[in-house]
Amino acid sequence: MPKFVLLFCLALFLSACSAGGGDNLPSGQSVEPSLEKSSTAQEPTVYIPDHPLTQEETIEQFFEQQYQAYTGLHYIDVSYLLDMSQMRNRNPLIWLEILIQRRRLIAQHQLCYVETTKYPYRITYEEEAEDGRMEFWSSRGIHNEDEVIVHFTITGEKGRAYPPFLAINGQHTMRLKQIGGVWKITFHYYPGSSRFRQNTPLVLPSEEEMREDLMREFQTLAPAASSGETSLPAHASPYHGLRAVQYARTYTETRNPAFYGIEDFMGNCSNFLSQCLWYGFGSGDQPDIARRENMTAQWYAGQGGGSPAWESVEQFWNYATASRNPGEQSLYGEVVETISQLDPGGIVQTRPGRFRNTDEEYSHSLLLVDAPTLLLAQNSPDCFVYYSDLANTDARFFNPRYLISD
Prior knowledge:
- The protein is of the alpha+beta class.
- It contains 10 helices and 16 strands.
- Helices cover 29% and strands 21% of the residues.
- The strands form 4 sheets. Strands 8, 11, 12, 13, 14, 15 and 16 form a 7-stranded antiparallel beta sheet that branches. The protein has a 4-stranded antiparallel beta sheet with strand order 4-5-6-7, covered by helices on one side.
- Residues 239-370 form the Putative amidase domain.
- Pfam families: Amidase_6.
């Protein structure tokens, strides 16, 4: 009997030691709640470092933890790293939850490709902002003396798609300050960040709500009426989507110097998209730009600038989709209802908000470069992104067909 009691006590001691072994986590790891999780709705992991972080460590863990959440399809709460008294910091975390839930449901229902591989990336710190963002913020009094301002660019493997919050190849600006002896991020800007947050609090929809939205978003419809062979009017230049894709793959990450560029703070997405279309209509060298070959009186650009229809998200759409007389000088194509009807070289435009439940203007343009994975090319930031990562956005779609330029 005494031997049995001794063994029982020893077992309890070992069990207690095992349960307490997770308290001393190395820096950069996360604490998981000891709750049983279902395969769908999961309790979040909470990131808590085991020692005070430096400014750079705070920034690095901010991205590293989010990237782990992204590839693991499991939300990690990084609120420890942020000044959570401000809505501009709370909303991005809700957006991250929305992104993770969207990706997990898309993967569960096999609606489209979802990236789960983590690729290497590098953070390069810089002394100054590369555009007019600082002057813009200063003119509006957006600056506190007790904050440290940090500029940096994140780069990765060429041709890879990374999570939207990394904004590969775009310059980030963060402000940090010490709160209670801990470095906290008080502000984070990057090209496109305004598309992922609103002035009103974001709300995480239930899984049932999001599932219903996704089923509508990915519904399979018949191909567009004029997909495939298109009857062309005289003097029309047909659209070759694969040429547009070729241009996008070449110049997404490194801009074409033959055209002017708009700084990321203002947004280069529609300028880049129009370049892809222009190449898809058959042009492709410097003399063509100078002659405005395959451009129109309203849709044109060069080294000195471009027209509103060329470089504005809304004005491009209004120009491309307007009703006009047959044979009139313009760009022609058709609006389609879902991403499943979009051809390679087709256009996606997005705006913040749930599936067709918003009054905001469309603010971003992208080009479909790979139909099987729904890989998209974009500028501002100058990188690739998967359609499955367009969280908390509404989208519209357009297949270009031909151009009449004279």
